[in-house]
Amino acid sequence: MLRRLEFVSLRRVFRAELESKEDSGHIYCSMPYKDKAVRNARARQKRAIHGDAIREYHRLYQRKYRAKHLSKLRAYQREWAIAQRRKIRGENFGKRKRKKTDREIRQTRLARKRRYHYRHRERINVGKRQKRTDNPEKFRGIDRLRYWLDPEKRRHQSRVARAKRTGQSCYISLEDWKALLVRFDFRCAYCGTEITKRNRSLDHRVPLVRGGTNDISNLVPSCLRCNQQKHSMTAEEFLIYFEANSL
Ligand SMILES: [Zn+2]
Asked: What are the boundaries of each domain within the chain?
């Protein structure tokens, strides 16, 4: 509690302060409790002195209040949260207009699974790797089947894995690669043979070992034969070689 003496001296201080602020719009009031500035300053000083005790009192009081009115408070919070969401997402929040179709349910479920997998990917991947080392024969068969089903996708995956391993962060997406094939009319960029599902390959015009990148500008579709013969030549070198040997 403030003592009388403190109160008086405080009043003097504030009076001086207020008088110095002549044009600030303050009207000096001889009754300090009626003057907002004085009242606030007094409260501030009180808090500075007894702050910890005041805070402790409030904390205790709140704890008691919460314990007494817990269910009421919870209900209020729930209501408030729903109202808030309705305000943000519109009137129809929480009211389903129609039943979800089977497809939508499947998609939601799939999305949830994906999220779960992403969150726990490290643990899952460790387990998967362990399984692979435990039964290699089984996985060899599975891998072969997968390759046979969609060779392009499997090759793409191994390319991505290699890019990751060698620290090349970006790699052409499967869509971009397919677009590239269309642009080259499904023909080898070097010999012009038709590219089929079995002989198609992705060629680096400047090979990775000679500082080429995985940028799309450095990539062309080629047949497997050309890609193997080209080996570590650049595209220009290979075309000269190609002409010279009249392949
Ligand atoms: Zn070719």
From this structure: 170-247
Measure CA of the first residue to CA of the last residue in the chain; give whole Å. 103
Phi-psi domain of 29 (left: phi exceeds 0; alpha: psi -120 through 50; beta: other): beta
Q: Ligand 1 centre and the CA of 241: distance in Å?
A: 13
Q: How far is the CA of 185 from the centre of ligand 1 (A)?
A: 13
Q: What is the mean pLDDT of the chain?
A: 83
Residues 16-41: pLDDT tens digits? 666 655 544 444 555 656 678 888 88
Q: How confident is the model at residue 80 (pLDDT cuts 50, 70, 90)?
A: very high
> Taking ligand 1, which is a single-atom ion, which protein residues have CB atoms under 5 Å away?
188, 190-191, 223, 226
- Rounded to the nearest angstrom, the distance between the alpha carbon of 236 and the centre of ligand 1 is 14
Q: What is the 153 CA–ligand 1 centroid distance (Å)?
A: 21
Integer Cα distance of 65 and 77 in angstroms: 15
CATH code that applies to domain 170-247: 1.10.30.50
pTM of the model: 0.40
